[in-house]
Amino acid sequence: MMLFKVLLCFTLMLVCYNVEGFYADNGMEDYIGDLKDNAVLDEELAEATDTLRASSEEVIYNATAANIWYRNRHGANSERFICTVGPQIRKICGFKYPFNIRITEKGRVYVTEYGTNYIHILNLAGTHIKKFAVPKGHPTGVFTRGNIVYVTNTADEVYKYTLNGEYLEAKYLKGAVPISIALDYDDLMYVCKWHSRNIQVFHRDGTASHVISYSGMRPRILHFDESDNLYVSDHYKKVLYVFNKYGKFLRKVSVPSKLTDGFAMDRAGNIFVPDRTKNAGKLFILNNAGKVLKTIGGMVGASDVAIAPDGTVWVVDFEGGCLLHY
Question: Which sequence ranges form a coiled-coil region, renumbered to this chain (predicted)?
């Protein structure tokens, strides 16, 4: 009798567990789903990053893809960078040697047109909004910060405009032929001087701060990473130079492009480098160590690239006179 009672008790316990377990499992599925969308996602992304950097898969990490989804779910200060660079969305032509591109956080696209004196403004749908002109010379570099657009030109000047293209002021840099411009996170202004083969740094009030140079460097386009380190493309040497903001040389990153102008970086450390070699234009996507993750062809000779807030990639085909949107 005692054995029977024990067996009965054990059987009832199993039945109760299974009944409770059934409902508990339903709740647990939802709970695990929430965890996967939150904490476990970090582990999955870390694993995906390791896999990616050990291979040449088409999935790449860039500065803004999936950020909108992730920020909405996890807060404005959260970032995730996974994205697939897909097929070409559109091709916008009719430019005469478009050169440099910048895209604002609100999705305004600014493109300098070296073959004229215009800077063009487009939206992310590729619709042309307006254009404005530099007073003289040809526009080269463009940079946006806040409500200001900075433009360099071939007449040794740096211009400031509003986001709508209204002229504010100009700074003359004798003999500089400034080819590009960037601001660091302290709003110091860095101007790439093509003929002088260096980068001149200015304080907010316009006074000179210091000069950054490196033996044999032919600097072209400037970008800062998340640590405020300055990356500089070399037009001929298939390399990016990395300096700290004070000009101390840190390292070089080898790139496969034969003729390099612009490039872009994402917050995961990957680098997008177009090749301007005529009739051999490509876009290379590399990790921060210089390993090629993907190559995209179909360009005549590309001079610059930018990553938009919606995660899409814009390539400036200088030789082809077009913008390519992926």
Answer: none
- The per-residue pLDDT for 176 is 82
pLDDT (tens digit per residue) in 251-309: 999 999 999 999 999 877 899 999 999 999 999 999 989 999 999 999 999 999 999 99
- Max distance between CA atoms of the chain, in angstroms, equals 107
* H helix and E strand count, the chain: 3, 26
* Structural contact between residues 109 and 101, judged by C-beta atoms closer than 8 angstroms: yes
Question: What are the structure tokens assigned to 166, written together?
Answer: 């209204």
Token pair of 156 as six digits:
């040794």
Same domain as 282, residue 312: yes
Q: Are 147 and 110 in contact (CB under 8 A)?
A: no
How high is the pLDDT of residue 33? Answer: 33
Total structural domains in the chain? 2
Phi-psi region for residue 241, left (φ > 0), alpha (ψ -120 to 50) or beta? beta
Domain span at 22: 15-74
Q: Which of 109, 78, 116 is nearest to 94 (CA)?
A: 116
Evaluate whether residue 6 is within a structural domain: no
**60 plus 174 within the same structural domain:** no
Long-range pairs, 114-117, Cβ under 8 A, ≥24 = 114/138, 114/139, 114/140, 114/318, 117/153
* pLDDT, position 76: 36
Residues ≥6 apart with Cβ < 8 Å to 64:
81, 83, 266, 307, 308, 309, 310, 311
Residue 103: partners with Cβ closer than 8 Å, 6 or more residues away? 109, 110, 124, 306, 307, 308, 309, 314
Tokens representing 298 are 């179909």
Residue type, 188: L
At 100-118, the pLDDT tens digits run: 999 999 999 999 999 999 9
Parallel, antiparallel or unpaired: strands 313-317 and 302-307? antiparallel
pTM beyond cutoff 0.85: no
Give the CB-side neighbour count of residue 145, counting CA atoms within 13 A.
Answer: 16
Pick out the chain residues at pLDDT < 70. 1-84
